[in-house]
Structure to design on (503 residues):
């Protein structure tokens, strides 16, 4: 297994990575520009040498845990908000973030999935920074929210990660795990993410919590207390908890 | 964004009753000092008081004793708060006797004073933060209280934003337009007196104070959603014009670009 010392792409490196993403979206089939990763003209050194393996991550939370452990050696201010570092990481793990499809093509999606946009709308959409930020805050409680392969965001991740008040609350994540986590599989229970108006789904959970948050100190509650507070439409899920 | 209504009788704690100030921690990073006055607001003396610090990617909660017996937290360092963006604060009064903590009062979206800020900065309509925005010069964050983000990599941008005529003429009208759009169209808030602590009310009030501006169109039974949206967007456009007129934006821009007359 090969390893590399983590660096940060500079402006020139980011632009070349961005151009590669645009070319992929335009139908090109080239390999990722991995030469950038160690190119002194396109990268900058970091304060501390951090060695990264070519790990294969079985789930988003595993990637987040790995990065959390590795990046803990760096000063926090050089990790948070560092576009170059997170862009470098996305390029380093590009085969997992944008895997080849059966026809050989790649579908990288929007730039912010690989080159972070730290504005409020898209900061959680970076495929590595988003999970890292949730894991850093909630550690093992983030298994459900960060379930699934690294290149795919579960809809429950979207529902919760885009709402600052909810993703901040440990109790909310505990409650979601109680209701919706299929523990043996480490994945959401069947139907939890349904969009067809089924009662008690994750989408309804979020809507109900937003209302309860006006009346109760949700951020001070345990997951069990939140589950107890939910209306009867959640009974089906509560029975499985 | 869906506007949520508070039917619970929960009290809003006036923003003027709370001040949060950041201070450097001895071991690096930030700590905070919270000053609040809950006298006369009708809270039971044994209700618990909490201050929460949060930003887009981190959160901390501090217990401050009760309404009747305030107790400072032993450690007010913001150790789990990421260096950026600048945190906001929330003060909560909670009835801890109830099985589920009932929220009795809240002051939300409190912008902390920086160590060098005077108290006059406390209620800034448009706080400014410096961030690495890549190749962008500025960005508006309306996820909470509106914040103008300026690119920290551009030299003297803070001074340019404060005093350059070209920046005023090119950037601020768009900032005003987008903030009003979020308030009126995004949050469907059209009442300047809705809430003295809510940024939507304060911004609409600010615009209503510009010469020639009327209050925004109110929702009427006859007007459908589409018609209301059009009326509100027309009002926003008039508000941007009024802002530019009040700030003399065109003349200042022309002069700054060397095209102005005497």
């Amino acid at each position: 297994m090969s390893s590399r010392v983590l660096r940060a792409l500079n402006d020139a490196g980011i632009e070349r990575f961005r151009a590669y993403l645009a070319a992929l979206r335009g139908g090109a089939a080239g390999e990722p520009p991995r030469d950038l990763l160690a190119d002194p003209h396109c990268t900058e050194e970091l304060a501390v040498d951090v060695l990264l393996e070519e790990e294969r991550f079985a789930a988003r939370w595993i990637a987040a845990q790995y990065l959390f452990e590795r990046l803990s050696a760096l000063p926090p201010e050089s990790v948070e908000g560092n576009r170059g570092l997170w862009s470098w990481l996305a390029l380093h793990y590009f085969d997992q973030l944008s895997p080849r499809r059966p026809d050989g093509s790649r579908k990288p999606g929007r730039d912010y999935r690989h080159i972070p946009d730290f504005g409020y709308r898209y900061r959680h959409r970076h495929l590595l920074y988003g999970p890292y930020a949730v894991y850093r805050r909630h550690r093992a409680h983030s298994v459900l929210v960060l379930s699934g392969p690294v290149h795919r965001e579960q809809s429950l991740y979207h529902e919760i990660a885009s709402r600052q008040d909810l993703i901040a609350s440990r109790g909310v994540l505990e409650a979601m795990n109680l209701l919706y986590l299929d523990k043996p599989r480490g994945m959401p229970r069947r139907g939890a993410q349904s969009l067809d108006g089924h009662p008690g789904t994750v989408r309804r959970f979020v809507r109900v919590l937003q209302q309860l948050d006006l009346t109760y100190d949700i951020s001070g509650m345990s997951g069990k207390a939140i589950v107890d507070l939910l209306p009867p439409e959640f009974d089906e899920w509560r029975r499985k908890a | 964004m869906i506007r949520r209504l508070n039917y619970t009788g929960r009290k809003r704690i006036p923003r003027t009753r709370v001040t949060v100030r950041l201070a450097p921690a001895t071991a690096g990073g930030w700590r905070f000092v919270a000053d609040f006055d809950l006298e006369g607001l009708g809270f039971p003396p044994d209700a618990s008081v909490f201050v929460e610090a949060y930003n887009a990617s981190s959160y901390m909660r501090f217990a401050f004793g009760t309404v009747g017996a305030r107790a400072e937290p032993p450690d007010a360092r913001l150790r789990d708060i990421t260096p950026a963006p600048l945190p906001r604060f929330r003060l909560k009064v909670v009835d801890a006797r109830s099985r589920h903590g009932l929220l009795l009062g809240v002051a939300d979206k409190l912008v902390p004073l920086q160590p060098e800020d005077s108290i006059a900065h406390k209620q800034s309509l448009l706080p400014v933060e410096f961030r690495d925005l890549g190749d962008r010069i500025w960005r508006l964050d309306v996820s909470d209280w509106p914040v103008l983000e300026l690119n920290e990599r551009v030299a003297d941008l803070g001074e340019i934003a404060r005093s350059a005529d070209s920046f005023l003429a090119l950037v601020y009208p768009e900032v005003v337009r987008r903030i009003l759009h979020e308030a009126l169209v995004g949050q469907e808030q059209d009442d300047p007196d809705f809430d003295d602590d809510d940024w939507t009310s304060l911004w609409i009030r600010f615009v209503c104070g510009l010469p020639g501006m009327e209050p925004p169109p109110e929702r009427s039974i006859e007007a459908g959603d589409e018609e209301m949206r059009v009326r509100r967007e027309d009002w926003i456009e008039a508000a941007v014009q009024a802002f530019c007129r009040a700030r003399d934006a065109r003349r200042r821009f022309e002069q700054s670009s060397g095209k102005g007359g005497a």
